[in-house]
Every structure is written in structure tokens, then in C-alpha cells.
Amino acid sequence: MKKYYYIAGISGIAVNFLLFLVKLYVGNAAFSLTIHCDAINNLGDTMSCVLAMLGFVFAIKFGEDIRARRTQSLIAFVISIVIALTGLFFVYRGLDRLMYPSGIVYGGKYHAIIIAAIFAKAALGALMVYLNKKAPSPIITALALDSFLDCLVTAFTLIGMVLVTKVNFAFDAYFAFLCGGVITAEAIKCVTKETKFLISGE
């Protein structure tokens, strides 16, 4: 169990931080709002994985003790809050882009990089699912959900990036709204689930 927890935490931190750097570069180079927001999302995911490592340390220390389960639930709760705040940040940036529009630099190489990022996050999500089967944990469940949501978000981001270069319309701002809404809604579900356990133990 200890081995699987460490793999989940370390791989999550490494992949998300790398994706943050890559997307930050693309977002700044292409002046793309949604790519930039997606980069911030990956930075938040990196911080979440650091919190996850803390939860895993408690889980390893206390084993099957209820304190371990409650600690993991609390960490999952915090991770979900971070994800929800990221979603709200997307919505805010969408409003900002509508009020102060700017052009996006078209580039096929940027699209290729973002497609590679989607596959990388999908692979991370699949790894989390596998690890969760080996060592079930609400933290790994939250990280797996976040990984697959990120794939969806980044796919929409790519679509928005392509469309906004084809027509004179702020597609990236509306995609920021859509992505932010999806992220926030799913995060709230996790917050509700973990809150219920922390209060009632069920």
C-alpha cells in the first residue's frame, strides 16, 4: 500500500508541474486565455498532489485506523475546494476576456503540444485508477477524477483555441465559462461527499 501511495503522489506532482510549465509557455506565446487558465489549473493540481502526499503519510502511519480515513477525507475535501476555486477562476477570466478582448496567435505546433498534454493527463488518470484498485483511497479517487476532468477541459480548450483563430468571436472566453462550470460542479460533488463523511462518518 505504501508503494502505491508514493507512486500516486510523486507521479501526480511530476506530471502536473510539467504540464503547468508547458501550458504556461503555450498560453503566453499564443495569447490564449483558456490555455493560460488550464496552466493555472495544473499548478493547482500540483499543489493538490503535495497535499495528497501529506494525506498518504498519515494513512501509512495510522494504517486502517479511523484517523487515517478521516485525514484522507479531509485532504480530499481540501483538494476539491482547490479544484472548485480553479473553476471559478476560469469563469472570472472568461468575463475579463469578454471585457478586454485580445487576439490569439495561430500555430500548429501549439496544437500538437496541447494534444500531447491531453494524452499525458489521460495516462495519469489511468494510472490513478489502477493505483486506487491496489490501494483504495479517497485522495487517489479525487486525483483520478481531476485527471479525467482535465482531459475534458484541455480538449475543450484546444477546440476553443482553433475556433477563435478561424472566426472573429471570443470562443475562448465562452469555453473558459464552460470549463469553469464543469470543474466547479464536479468539485462541489466531491466536497459534499467528503463533508458528509467528516460529519457523520458514513
Unreliable runs:
none
CA radius of gyration? 18 Å
* Coarse shape: elongated
Average pLDDT, rounded to a whole number, is 79
Main beta-sheet annotation: none
Q: Kindly, what is the distance between the CA atoms of the first and last residues, rounded to a whole number of angstroms?
A: 23 Å
Strand content range: under 5%
The amount of helix comes to over 70%
The protein's oligomeric status is single chain
Number of strands: 0
- What is the helix tally? 6
Structural class by secondary-structure content: mainly alpha
Give a quick precis of the structure.
This protein has 202 residues and is mostly helical.
Features:
202 residues; mainly alpha; 0% strand; elongated
Characterization of this structure:
The protein has helices at residues 2-30, 33-62, 66-99, 108-134, 138-166, 171-200. The chain has 202 residues and is an all-alpha fold. α2 (33-62) packs antiparallel against α5, α4 runs antiparallel to α5 and α5 (138-166) runs antiparallel to α6 (171-200).
